[in-house]
Amino acid sequence: MLFAGESVSAYGYSPVYSATHADNSDSPTYGPSSQATYSLDDSHLAERWGVSRIEAPQAWQITRGDQSIILADRVVAEVNFTNSPTSDDLYGHGTHMAGTIAAIAPECQLMNVKVADDRGKCEPSVVARGIIWAVDHGARVINLSLSMKASPDLEEAVNYAWSQGAILITAAGNRGGSEPSYPAYYVNCLAVAGTNKNNSLALLSSHGDWVDVAAPGFNIYSELPQNQYGYKTGTSAAGAHVSGVAALVFSVAEDSNVNGTVNDEVRWAIENSCTPIAADGVGQGLVNAFQAVTETISSP
Q1: Poorest-confidence range of 44-48, 184-188, 198-202?
Q2: Is 241 a catalytic residue?
Q3: Which residues touch 164 (CB under 8 Å, ≥6 apart)?
Q4: Which of 100, 148, 181, 295 could connect to 273 by a Cys-Cys bridge, CB 3.0–4.6 Å?
């Protein structure tokens, strides 16, 4: 998983459920689902309202992801494309996004690609380099919780990633209007608007006919650096929810059209399993993890 906000290597993951080990060992088991079961920790789940809203707990009855999907609980690769002396997250954005994604897809693995500086600023050319590096190192779900100006290099990197079988989940932006945001506006990105607890458009969320889906993006509780926790609002958090869903769907998707990749099947399942909501400019509606996974395994 590419986190384009800061590094997430400093991120300490506390799941919304706790591991229960059949062998009574002290160490978590990260093997296939049959080797570990999960029980909900209601206190954490109550804070992470978005995880329940998209029906991730129901989806866990089918899949919690798998380790071939590069995304969650431990870092398997990292790189720093910025002028920062460290790949650690000093700004907090990447850590927060990682916490949400890992809460939804706990059995996937994380790839830490730092493309924003320690103030959270990034350039299209740097993001493009990060995308290409992530894909070339096995990333299958790329979370782009950022927005910037259009760039030929950025669009080329997005198209390359899609052609290699990755899905790119992108924040629609926080301008509060319908002006397109990049890279979300590119055809090979899944653009995500933010919603609140009333399933209405979240404060300042961008929206429009170029947006594909929506997800929780208001007062989202997640991890921060130095073992802290906090709330963030914005389409970055909404995109993180969808990235988690994408990882779950990837773990059960098959190449039904025999084109050599499954990112098209994953995107189709996410978009075509959404719950309609009474908000304009949110594409197919609110993502639903359970329905997306169910749609995938029931497709011919």
Answers
A1: 44-48
A2: no
A3: 135, 261
A4: 295
Report the 10 Å Cβ neighbour count for 164. 15
Strand partners, 213: 192
Catalytic residue among 66, 87, 88, 93: 93
Residue 73 is among the residues annotated as catalytic for this protein = yes
Tell me which residue of 200, 197, 242, 170 sits closest to 48, measured CA to CA. 197
Q: How is the chain split into domains, by residue range?
A: 2-298
Coil, strand or helix: which one is 244?
helix
Kindly name the residue from 66, 73, 88, 89 that is annotated as catalytic: 73
Could you report the per-residue pLDDT of 52-77, keeping only the tens digit for each?
999 999 999 999 987 665 442 345 67
User: Does the active-site annotation cover 222?
Assistant: no
Q: Which CATH number fits domain 2-298: 3.40.50.1220, 3.30.9.10, 3.40.630.10, 3.40.50.200?
A: 3.40.50.200
Q: What radius of gyration do the chain's Cα atoms show?
A: 17
- The residue from 7, 147, 236, 251 that is catalytic is 236
User: Are 249 and 292 a contacting pair, CB within 8 Å?
Assistant: yes
Contact 232, 240 (CB under 8 A): no
